[in-house]
Amino acid sequence: MQPADIRTVFMGTPDFACPSLAGLIDAGCNLVGVFTQPDRPSGRGRKLTPPPVKVLAEQRQIPVFQPEKLRRPEAVEQLRSLAPDLVVVVAYGQILSREVLQLPRFGCINVHASLLPKYRGAAPINKAIIDGETVTGVTTMYMDEGLDTGDMLIRKSLDIGPNETAGELHDRLAPLGAEAMRETLQRLCAGTLERVPQNDAESSYASMMKKEDGRIDWNRPARQVHNLVRGLDPWPSAYTTLDGLTLKIAATSVVAGTGEPGMVLQASADGVLVACGEQALLVGRLQLPGKKQLAAADFLRGHDLPPGTRLG
């Protein structure tokens, strides 16, 4: 069997999904349709903006479907009319019903951005960094009705850099996901695809991030605060307060230093040094509400942060 023999529907929405879609196209898959989220208002002008997957699919002249809810009967019938043999799901953003999962004869295969069974859920990239993991990766799996609980197929890993942000890791995992999906497709065609059940006892969850998750507790060790900052960069951002205003911080590093947690120890062009429960955090970039994010040197030209200033 060849990829061209498999009627494939792709379901995905953000940038992360685009390399996987491109990989399926390049592999010669018979892509009969792409399902993605509806266009949403975006930017200051709130202009309706198509998802990145829609843009790519239209460039490659693949039919695009954007149901508000895939569970609705009319959306299911739309999918059924395409008679898919395989459905590939990458960061689609909607839950697939049992009816949808049972439609394709080769099942529904998902590309998930963690080494399952760890970090099931919506924010595996963020949570891996926040937890201080040094290795992560991607897993392809057969989808079932649980949340990322299906049998695993292909796993690929990479190291997480000590200062790597969620945004940077996202950009490295996306092509790795495409690579894993290509290998999964090759094995499916060759009849050598093996299913490995997940061990639920080893599972953990990474629920969707909220803005309030970014509030910094300066009583924590500097390493934990550093991991929070990079794990929430670029969104939703780690933050503290300065004179009652929200102060977002980024580009941090852990350095030696002691003092009352949350107290500014030193502020220079190199960064703002803040005491933590253990060691100190050097903050390289800062942002006040309604302002651009600035390097410490530029921020300090307009805002004095003398030693003893309290944050949080």
From TrEMBL:
Q: Which PROSITE patterns match?
A: GART
Principal EC category: transferase
Entry superkingdom: Bacteria
The EC number on file is: 2.1.2.9
* Entry-linked InterPro entries: Fmt, Formyl_trans_C, Formyl_trans_C_sf, Formyl_transf_N, Formyl_transf_N_sf, Formyl_transferase-like_C_sf, GART_AS, Met-tRNA-FMT_C
User: What name appears for this protein in its UniProt entry?
Assistant: Methionyl-tRNA formyltransferase
Residues that hold (6S)-5,6,7,8-tetrahydrofolate according to the record = 114-117
UniProt source species = Geothermobacter hydrogeniphilus
